[in-house]
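Deliverable D4.2, example record:
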Amino acid sequence: MSEVLSARTALVTGASSGIGWETARLLAEHGATVVLHARTLNEGEHAVDRLVARGVSRERLHLVTADFTRLAEVRNLAAAVAAAFPALDLLVNNAAIMAPERCTLSEDGIEVSFQVNFLAAHVLANLLQDSLSAAGDARIVNVSSSLHRTAAMNWNDPNRVKKYSRVAAYAQSQLALSIDTLAMAPEGSGITAVSVNPGLCDTALLPLYGRVGAPPAEGAAAVVRLCLPDVRLTNGEYYEGGDIAPTAIAVHEDRSQRRLGRLADRLVTGA
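Output generated by the structure prediction step:
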């Protein structure tokens, strides 16, 4: 495999298993320095050991930990990455959880799948914007889902306390991530941000879909393709199979983008 990313540094969230782990592996095999995010130290060390066993140089791997159900830990993670890597070339927002059977709020008072799947990525993109801009031609790749097309934002009750469905909550989190993508790469920042559907893969999220999934490595290949410098991307777009794909109408609505930005800022400030 070519080392086309040999001079680049990438942060991959949710990199201890599934698509995130495979994405970290592929990026490292392309020569990148990879900052692996894991929820706990034990999960992260196990992920690093498995990568090394697969032939990845340990010197290319840097482990960071944060529980995304706590926004304070997301902020601490961003500060640690920015201090260690003043120039960050790639941010892959992959971390995601399946919404629980019952509405569950984080310590910050936010529905947990909305916080982990969307709000953490929003915070990281904001706090790491200087590092990404410093890299020049940096990319943010948000791992989303085709389920975002079935979703609707519940603006008045984003936690869905009054009428909760785990599928609706998960889909809303993916819609929010896709809507927010363009705002993660402000004009003049030197950043390009896109979202991608990695396809249906055999990960912890598979029960939501109820079908047989492909190996996580296939999903990771779709993600990593968008990280390669010779692949041209259109800012704010949603990709499937390497091509721009149709999205929910709200993804490209200025009004929805502004409204989500206000909601996210309110939730983050209140946390």
